[in-house]
Amino acid sequence: MKLSRAEYNEIARFMEKLRPTRQCMRMLKEKFPSQSQSTLLSIFSLEYQKRIKRTISKHHTPEAIETYYLRYQSEMKNNPTAPVLLSLANEVNFSPSLMARLILERHLQDQEGALSTKSVINSLLREPSLIRDRQLANQVYQCTINDCCYGPLVDCIKHAIGQEHEILLRDMLRERNLSFLDENQLRIKGYDKTPDIILEVPIETAVEGHIIHWIESKASFGDYQSHRTYLNDQFWSYWNRFGPGLVIYWYGFIEELDCHRERGILLKDCFPTDIVTLCHGAGQS
Questions:
Q1: Looking at the keywords, is Transcription regulation present (predicted)?
Q2: What DSSP string describes 55-76?
Q3: Where are the domains of the chain?
Q4: Structure confidence at residue 206 (pLDDT)
């Protein structure tokens, strides 16, 4: 799904006051019924992360953390079964999973007299049952399952979706009898930074007439900020090393971003269906 800049901005404006809950997706789908839920979720995740990055510093001051921790302790005494951390995160417009991390870190510091390592915190967030304080464990779990943008559950889902689309891409290439090397094979050959696919026989899409040596799969929506980051960190380095290539944003992208075709980077929101191999000069489908 390609969106114009104006269409994307309309969706982004509507998302500004939404919280990262499962319920927000129902509201988005009702407002924008022509967009797929996957596309809307991807756009919401991008916009929400921008919002958090703009405000995260104020939540990480020692004063803010202490205020949140004292609020948590007080409200847990008054109502130990209430979703205290989730409500607090919503009240201050902060990610529930990130709020859970702050309180967990502060709790462990209180209990152990020292800051815990990042690996310890991450393991406890991934597996809240390992948290000794059962009430806090339950609070962390509630935050994790109610946050659709941050946290270990979201990370796991995103990784699985990314893997699924890479497998889908390889299957499509095999169906068309196109010879390729995937990222794992390239690393075995000694490449350190590689796209998902290198085509052993370059292909030309018959409709658009662009030579393609590599393909990168992105199970996300391509907005200005993420695409600019990918260009600088990945795509141009692929272009320098392997030549022109194709980026597939499976959940769509802002159509104005597809402006580097003549320089050798083509954007699509699906796998090209009409392919001509240079070695044969004949269509394969």
A1: no
A2: HHHHHSSHHHHHHHHHHHHHHH
A3: 2-55, 57-150, 155-277
A4: 43
Global pTM value = 0.87
Residue 4 parent element (H or E) = none
Record the tokens describing residue 262, joined without a space: 């003549």
And the tokens for 168? 């889908």
pLDDT at 285 over 60: no
Three-state DSSP at 197 gives strand
Q: What is the tens place of the pLDDT at every residue in 14-39?
A: 998 887 777 788 889 999 999 999 99
Q: Of 129, 18, 143, 128, whose CA–CA distance to 87 is shortest? A: 143
Max Cα–Cα distance, the chain, nearest Å = 75
Instruction: Indicate the CATH number for domain 155-277.
Output: 3.40.1350
Residue whose token pair is 């030549």:
243
Q: Nearest-5° angle of CA 282, CA 284, CA 285?
A: 155
Q: Is the dihedral of CA 92, 98, 104, 105 positive or negative?
A: negative
- In the prediction, which pLDDT does 279 show? 59
- Three-state DSSP class for 258? coil
Place of tokens 């022509």: 34
Measured from the Cβ of residue 228, the count of other Cβ atoms closer than 10 Å reads 12
**Amino acid letter for position 45:** S
Instruction: Read off the pLDDT of residues 254-277 as tens digits, 9 standing for 90 and up.
Output: 999 999 998 999 999 999 887 777
